[in-house]
Design a protein that fits this description.
299 residues; alpha+beta; Rossmann fold; Tumour Suppressor Smad4; 2 domains; 11-stranded antiparallel β-sheet; 34% strand
Length: 299
């Protein structure tokens, strides 16, 4: 009996998917499973489609889009029997990058079809934000969350350049805040520029903010950038592209199963590039909470 797959497509992803690309994606999946295709033109339509797929006990939920679409799919698939297949077609694609999924949509669909056909699955940890939802990549607050928020509001330029421009603009209004980080190992009270809690390494379209994070070890990697003047932060930022920022004396790294972050800072947290809630927040790692149909190798 063929496996049942629901394919949810955001046709505006990647600046607009051509009919040929959509046809190729569908053809690859239909070669190995029974496919029901849903076109979702907005977040509400996507959320409804992915939740229905899981409620209907689809074997696989395949989503075409960027990290926002993947984030909605994670909410539906977390701790369910439905495996998630990601076909990246956005500007960041950080979850796909973590899973070693090809960045070109048709190649990603081919890889997903191979994984579905062979029964290949990976079981990924997820972050659970108390009272909010799940995330698969990184939760951040402070300067980087403000950059994320600005980049989300911008319509130009596309891709990594948009994030870089947002970063430069946020530097002009740089503010630090009091931050408390509580883990099972102790408490850190400090003034900080930002905090990132990583289930995976990357955010912002390929920035390894938590360069040593492993997505199936049952632990978060936490990166805290302390209080630094604008000039010093400008020296740290280029190191983000290589992960060498963790060597800077102003940067503290932790590893924990659960993290509570707070402090008198008014920070709004973002996770998977999506707004969550203002601090304080409690986040726990849920080992193996997401089943993913993807290539066995990942980086």
């Amino acid at each position: 009996m063929l496996m049942r797959c629901v394919l949810v497509i955001n046709p505006a992803a990647g600046g607009g998917l051509s009919a040929k690309v959509v046809g190729d994606l569908t053809d690859h999946l239909r070669a190995v499973c029974e496919v029901r295709t849903v076109i979702a033109t907005d977040a509400a339509g996507t959320e409804s489609a992915v939740r229905r797929a899981v409620a209907d006990r689809a074997d696989v939920l395949a989503v075409v889009g960027g990290d926002g679409v993947a984030h909605l799919a994670v909410q539906a698939c977390a701790e369910s029997a439905t495996a998630l297949a990601i076909i990246p077609a956005g500007s960041g694609n950080d979850l796909a990058r973590s899973l070693g999924i090809p960045r070109e949509p048709v190649a990603a669909a081919r890889a997903a079809a191979e994984a579905i056909s062979s029964g290949a699955r990976r079981h990924l940890d997820l972050g659970k934000v108390a009272g909010t939802g799940w995330f698969a990549t990184v939760l951040c607050a402070g300067f980087d969350a403000k950059v994320n928020a600005r980049a989300n509001r911008m319509r130009w330029p596309r891709g990594q350049r948009r994030y870089d421009l947002a970063l430069v603009r946020e530097l002009l209004g740089l503010r630090t805040g009091a931050l408390r980080v509580e883990t099972e190992h102790g408490v850190l009270d400090t003034r900080a520029t930002l905090i990132a809690i990583g289930n995976t390494r990357w955010y912002g379209g390929g920035i390894p903010i938590c360069p040593d994070a492993i997505d199936d070890d049952g632990l978060f990697d936490v990166t805290v950038v302390g209080e630094v003047p604008r000039r010093e932060l400008l020296r740290i930022l280029p190191r983000l592209r290589t992960g060498r920022h963790v060597d800077h004396p102003a940067v503290t790294t932790l590893r924990a199963k659960s993290v509570r972050i707070g402090g008198d800072n008014g920070w709004l947290a973002y996770a998977d590039g999506e707004p969550q809630a203002r601090l304080p927040l409690t986040i726990r790692c849920a080992p193996g909470a997401l089943s993913v149909a993807c290539p066995p190798s990942h980086g």
